[in-house]
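Risk mitigation, structural track. In case the binding assays with NDP fail to produce interpretable data, a predicted complex structure has been prepared as a fallback.
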Amino acid sequence: MTFKSLSDSTVLSNGVKMPWLGLGVYKAKEGEEVEFAVKTAIRLGYRSIDTAAVYGNETGVGKAVRESGVPREELFITTKVWNSDQGYDSTLKAFEASLERLGMDYVDLYLIHWPVKGKYKETWKALEKLYKEGRVRAIGVSNFQTHHLDDLLQDAEINPMVNQVELHPWLTQKELREYCSRHHIVLEAWSPLMRGKVTEVPEIVRLAEKYGKTPAQIVLRWNLQIGVVTIPKSVREHRIRENADVFDFHLSEEDVAILEGLNRNHRTGPDPDNFNF
Ligand code: NDP
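Fallback model:
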């Protein structure tokens, strides 16, 4: 794999291209803040934006995309169906509401946000319908463990193309990575920067000094080199720029192994096997 720029993409199982690096907008405030982040990112070359109905900022994302000056078809927009909307009819309705807020007539990737027990299979049927109708270019899941995927794949007519999960140096997700690779599911990292904490990990700081890069850049580069799509969030221009400046160096195998060795199966977010929202 070679990575030269922000428009470099991986290819999903259905042939659709998805940029390796995008902008996350969880906790970017609706209105000026999210609009600034998205417009800045697009101006700096980002082509992928990750939002969700529950982030409450789809309207701002859509506005920024329209005002960016970059044609819609050159961008890759992801959104997600929230837990309380899961189920067949309610997902179809939630999708229309997301499109309305985004002001778009399709999204590139639609995800089931969390594996809500007893609901996610019905939700998946709705995603399959949207996919077959061409309302979404790709469909996938988020926060699915291997057993959730096993269960879904049993009944799915169309397999998920992406699984977006918490993944960073303290939660390297080795087993899930292998599983997804076997099933041609692209794995995507959320909280890749451990919400900023990567700057405090001594081993990562040492690697940053060695390569003349920042801790965030070391970790994002590691994501790319292990074949994981990554979506760091920032609402600040200097960090949006910093997080994209990962295409001019290469981590050695030994240094990739150092990062892999930091795993402690530590979650900064909820456990997909034990959540109540
Ligand atoms: P990240 O790991 O991307 O970290 C974001 C935090 O780190 C922010 O506080 C940001 O602050 C700060 N930051 C950004 N860049 C740097 C840098 N270079 N150096 C130091 N600090 C930095 O966390 P997120 O939880 O936001 O995850 C990324 C994206 O993944 C989300 O925005 C969302 O799109 C998605 N996500 C999906 C989930 C799911 O369930 N599917 C769950 C959580 C996230 P500032 O903005 O002030 O720069």
